[in-house]
Structure formats: structure tokens, C-alpha cells
Design a protein that fits this description.
The protein is an alpha/beta fold and 214 residues long. The protein contains 9 helices and 5 strands. Strands 2-3-1-4-5 form a 5-stranded parallel beta sheet, sandwiched between helices. It starts with a strand and ends with a helix. Bound molecules: 2'-deoxycytidine-5'-monophosphate. The site of 2'-deoxycytidine-5'-monophosphate has 14 residues, from helix 2, helix 4 and helix 8.
């Protein structure tokens, strides 16, 4: 079974995807990490973050260094913001699309796959078996992200995190290519008032219902 999870930043989609994959013994692909890795490799190449050279970004995507997707260096707000900018380029998205579809078509462990991102249920895997769309109140999400950054040893101020998140949300939702939106057949969940365990339990109940039907 293929599970697609889309949603906004710090909505809890990544934690859900990871926990679901672990519980079901499925493989997990964090597609945001792919865009972040492209952003980080551009930064390492010394680019001016205010001017993105599209050809260079496409080259980084096509020569994707997958080890960067595991690097803690991709988890800064600066990388997230650059990743969101790069993600509005159709050419970069096209480059990363193949990799994401190949992962879902042949998950390394031979079981199912869980992919999370912004356009998994709409563009990458429109035929996914189960789709979730995860969102939450932006102040709650900014608070979560601030705490996460502080836990990771980075400096973070709620007000700045909230402002950056508003810009990123707006860009991700309004870009012309593959904007963040719920697929028509996605199950929408608002996580403003539920924790990660409750979200996992809810998602598992949908999974079991789906499994029983098929
Ligand atoms: O999920 P994340 O915060 O790690 O994603 C970082 C950025 O990458 C996000 O702001 C938009 C982009 N992204 C995307 O456009 N499509 C995806 N499938 C995943 C991420």
C-alpha cells in the first residue's frame, strides 16, 4: 500500500509519516528533505540566496546527494525558506518527480511506502491508496517549530518563526506549479488540538478500515 501525506510546515505530517512507516514496516521518504538538500547544496556552492540560478538548481537536483537529506544542516529556517523558493521552479520539481515515483514503485524493503510533502497526493502519486492532508493553526505550528529549533540547539524567536512560516505557507499554497492543497480524496485532519500519538491512532484507524475493504 502507498500512503501519501501532504500538509503545511510543522503540522505534524513528518512525525506521522515516520511513525506510520515504523509501525507498518513500510519505507518512508521525506520529500521536503529533497528540496532542502538541493537548497543546502546551492548554499554550499556559495550562491547568493536572493538570486537563484535555475540551471544550477536543476543540476543540484539531478545530481542529488542523498546523504544531504540526512544532514542536520538541512533543518534550519534559512534552508527551509530557500527550499520553498526552489520548489516553485517547475524544472526542479520535474527533476525530483522521477526519484519520488521510483521510490513508491519499488520501496527498498519490498513492503509499502509512506511519502510526505506538499504535492504527493495531487501530483506525485495521484493513485496512492490512502491520502492524508494535515494542517493546524499557524500560531500553534510556529510554536511547535520554535520549540523544535530550540531543542535542536538553534536560536529561535517565536515572532520570527511565525513571520517566516507565514511567507513560506503563502508561497507553498499559491505557487503555479504543484501548490500545497488537499487532494479531493484526501482525509483532512487538523492537528491543532491533538498530539502525535492521537494523530497516529487516527491515521491507523483509517489505514485498518482501508485494509479491511481491499
Ligand atoms: O516539508 P518541509 O518543510 O521539509 O519542506 C521544505 C520546503 O520544500 C517546503 O516549504 C516546500 C517544499 N516542498 C515542496 O514544494 N514539495 C514537497 N513535496 C515537499 C517540500
Amino acid at each position: 500500500m502507498i500512503i501519501a501525506i501532504d500538509g503545511s510546515a510543522a503540522s505534524g505530517k513528518g512525525t506521522l509519516a515516520r511513525k506510520l512507516a515504523l509501525r507498518l514496516n513500510y519505507d518512508y521518504l521525506d520529500t521536503g528533505a529533497l528540496y532542502r538538500a538541493v537548497a543546502l547544496s546551492l548554499m554550499k556552492a556559495g550562491i547568493d540566496v536572493n538570486y537563484i540560478d535555475e540551471n544550477q538548481a536543476v543540476k543540484c537536483a539531478s545530481e542529488m546527494d542523498l546523504t544531504l537529506t540526512k544532514s542536520p544542516e538541512i533543518r534550519t529556517d534559512l534552508v527551509a525558506s530557500l527550499a520553498s523558493n526552489i520548489a516553485s521552479l517547475a524544472t526542479v520539481r520535474a527533476e525530483l518527480l522521477t526519484l519520488q515515483r521510483a521510490f513508491a514503485a519499488a520501496p527498498p524493503s519490498g513492503n509499502g511506502a509512506v511519502l510526505d510533502g506538499r504535492d504527493i497526493g495531487t501530483i506525485i502519486l495521484p493513485d496512492a491508496d490512502l491520502k492524508f492532508f494535515i494542517d493546524a493553526n499557524i500560531s500553534i505550528r510556529a510554536d511547535r517549530r520554535t520549540k523544535e529549533l530550540l531543542r535542536g540547539g538553534q536560536s529561535a524567536i517565536f515572532r520570527d518563526v511565525l513571520a517566516a512560516m507565514k511567507i513560506r505557507d503563502y508561497r507553498d499554497r499559491t505557487r503555479l506549479v504543484a501548490p500545497l492543497r488537499a487532494a479531493e480524496d484526501a482525509i483532512s485532519i487538523d492537528t491543532s488540538n491533538i498530539d502525535a500519538d492521537a494523530l497516529l491512532a487516527l491515521a491507523l484507524s483509517y489505514f485498518e478500515t482501508k485494509h479491511r475493504v481491499e
